[in-house]
Amino acid sequence: MILASNAVLQIQKPIETVFEGIVNPVHMTQYFISESTGRLETGKEVYWKFPEFLNRYLIKEVSIETNRSISFVWDPETVVTITLEKQLDNSTVVRVNENGKELSKDHLKWVLENTGGWANFLACMKAYLEYGIQLRKGGYDFMRKDEK
Does residue 62 contact residue 45 with C-beta atoms inside 8 Å? Predict the structure, then answer.
């Protein structure tokens, strides 16, 4: 059995704005990551840094369909796919799926944590894109910088 982490949320912004909010590090660093070595583009590898962790994370095997989907690998066993669906009211439904791990006790813990993580990503992106609010700012100061 293959496990998957899933999250979904509607954002009251046009699909072009939401897409740019995901692929452009100028925006991503306002609500999700603290640093990026570049824009997400098909075939390009970038590194992401999160404010609560010391490590940098390689984002590879990037595949982009403009205003439709973004996929990448940041864990050798999983693929993250973010799909965008334009709504009649000019809002966007964002779906995140990360899958590929075989069923095990450790991987059950992973799926629970990552599902929460992707839900947090979506909530932070919604707050930033709709209202300019940075929900993550100060949200993880209690964590040790060397935790993984």
Answer: yes
Distances 35 to 25, 47, 74, 92, 136 between C-alpha atoms, Å: 8, 8, 15, 25, 14
Cα atoms in the 13 Å half-sphere on the side-chain side of 80: 22
Name the residue ranges covered by the structural domains of the chain. Answer: 2-131
- 3-state DSSP assignment of residue 7: strand
Lateral strand order in the sheet of 78-86: 2-11, 92-102, 78-86, 69-75, 56-65, 46-49, 35-36
Structure token digits, residue 29: 């660093």
CATH architecture of structural domain 2-131: 2-Layer Sandwich (3.30)
pLDDT (tens digit per residue) in 18-47: 999 999 999 999 999 999 999 999 999 999
Look up residue 105 and give its two tokens: 């006790």
Q: How far apart are CA 121 and CA 117, in angstroms?
A: 6
Residue listed under structure tokens 């992401």: 48
Give the pLDDT confidence of 40-91 residue by residue, as tens digits: 999 999 999 998 888 999 999 999 999 999 999 999 889 999 999 999 999 9
Q: Is the pTM of this model over 0.90?
A: yes
